Amino acid sequence: MSLSAGFARLPGFHVCVGSGGERQPPEWYKENGIELILSTEIVKADLAGKTLTSAAGDTFKYQTLIIATGSSVIRLTDFGVQGADSKNIFYLREIDDADKLVDAIKAKKNGKCVIVGGGYIGLEISAVMKMNNVDVTMVYPEPWCMPRLFTAELAAFYEGYYANKGINIIKGTVAAGFTADANGDVKEVKLKDGRVLEANIVVVGVGGRPLINLFKGQLQEEKGGIKTDGFFKTSNPDVYAVGDVATFPLKLYSEIRRVEHVDHARKSAEQAVKALKASEKGKSIEEYDYLPYFYSRSFDLSWQFYGDNVGETIIFGDNSPAAPKAKFGTYWTKDGKVVGAFLESGTPEENKAIAKVARAQPPVESLEKLKAEGLTFATKF
């Protein structure tokens, strides 16, 4: 987004609105009988004693606890990267992070930015920087961008599209160090392969870690998160965990997984509260039955993915980076069934269709026929 385009600015953005919920300013909590305590960090959790302690020494007793601590950003200083504490090296996790980055973009007109990382943060921030007339270079070690989701063919389109926008992409290496000027502002990024890139803004997006240290040794853990059931209840019956920190049964695939995404954060929170309220009335609800969902918007692109990205793949449609309006997709198939679907530039109806297919997992006669049918395979359901 261009900073002059009048887009909504934090903190006027409310995460639940994205799924049809209400805006939640401070008054909303008061009107709904919820005590909202801000600027208070919990530094100790005694689950046996049902007590939380804040940094200021205040204690909070509870009957039921819902852990929604999310993730912390992984910083290059965690690994002792030389010069990683220089000024104007940014991470995106909190509102303050976004505000500081916006200020830097405004202060350094026509600046040079290096983006470290080729995932969500890397791709979306690269687009924003370019739209604000900043020179952009992306650096990541993987052979293609978004490797946790994209196939090589999908990535080739986005890398080509970004290159056509004037974004320089350097793959197969990492930022090994930074140099700063006399004021401590970053001025160069030193790559592991020996190259040195000029930069007065650096944005690092190399992942996050679930914030579960407060509960270590008090709850069962699995796959890096707090183990829960299909109602997000943990090994302690009075404690629930939702969002990034929860490792839960993914019913659709009979697997235990942890999912880092806003859609799951919203829906897992809703499930936990529904389960809690039902148990108070001696009732029960259906187990969580989540369909994995990811999406992104950058430049004039907009993609959605549903399901599981495992097995064989086919790509359909026009995926030329030079196309005036590219529209294409990918299906993932496993054991003769479609298990995942991706669509770039789909209409709302088409996106609903690929979601429906990903959940239904219909059988496939052959990959050739699936490729020939393309989007029609989903929309005919």
TrEMBL record:
<keyword id="KW-0520">NAD</keyword>
<dbReference type="InterPro" id="IPR023753">
    <property type="entry name" value="FAD/NAD-binding_dom"/>
</dbReference>
<keyword id="KW-0274">FAD</keyword>
<keyword id="KW-0560">Oxidoreductase</keyword>
<dbReference type="InterPro" id="IPR016156">
    <property type="entry name" value="FAD/NAD-linked_Rdtase_dimer_sf"/>
</dbReference>
<dbReference type="Pfam" id="PF21791">
    <property type="entry name" value="MDHAR3-like_C"/>
</dbReference>
<feature type="domain" description="Monodehydroascorbate reductase 3-like C-terminal">
    <location>
        <begin position="291"/>
        <end position="378"/>
    </location>
</feature>
<dbReference type="GO" id="GO:0005737">
    <property type="term" value="C:cytoplasm"/>
</dbReference>
<comment type="similarity">
    <text>Belongs to the FAD-dependent oxidoreductase family.</text>
</comment>
<keyword id="KW-0521">NADP</keyword>
<keyword id="KW-0285">Flavoprotein</keyword>
<dbReference type="InterPro" id="IPR048618">
    <property type="entry name" value="MDHAR3-like_C"/>
</dbReference>
<dbReference type="Pfam" id="PF07992">
    <property type="entry name" value="Pyr_redox_2"/>
</dbReference>
<feature type="domain" description="FAD/NAD(P)-binding">
    <location>
        <begin position="31"/>
        <end position="269"/>
    </location>
</feature>
<protein>
    <recommendedName>
        <fullName>monodehydroascorbate reductase (NADH)</fullName>
        <ecNumber>1.6.5.4</ecNumber>
    </recommendedName>
</protein>
<dbReference type="GO" id="GO:0016656">
    <property type="term" value="F:monodehydroascorbate reductase (NADH) activity"/>
</dbReference>
<keyword id="KW-0676">Redox-active center</keyword>
<dbReference type="InterPro" id="IPR036188">
    <property type="entry name" value="FAD/NAD-bd_sf"/>
</dbReference>
<comment type="function">
    <text>Catalyzes the conversion of monodehydroascorbate to ascorbate, oxidizing NADH in the process.</text>
</comment>
<dbReference type="InterPro" id="IPR050446">
    <property type="entry name" value="FAD-oxidoreductase/Apoptosis"/>
</dbReference>
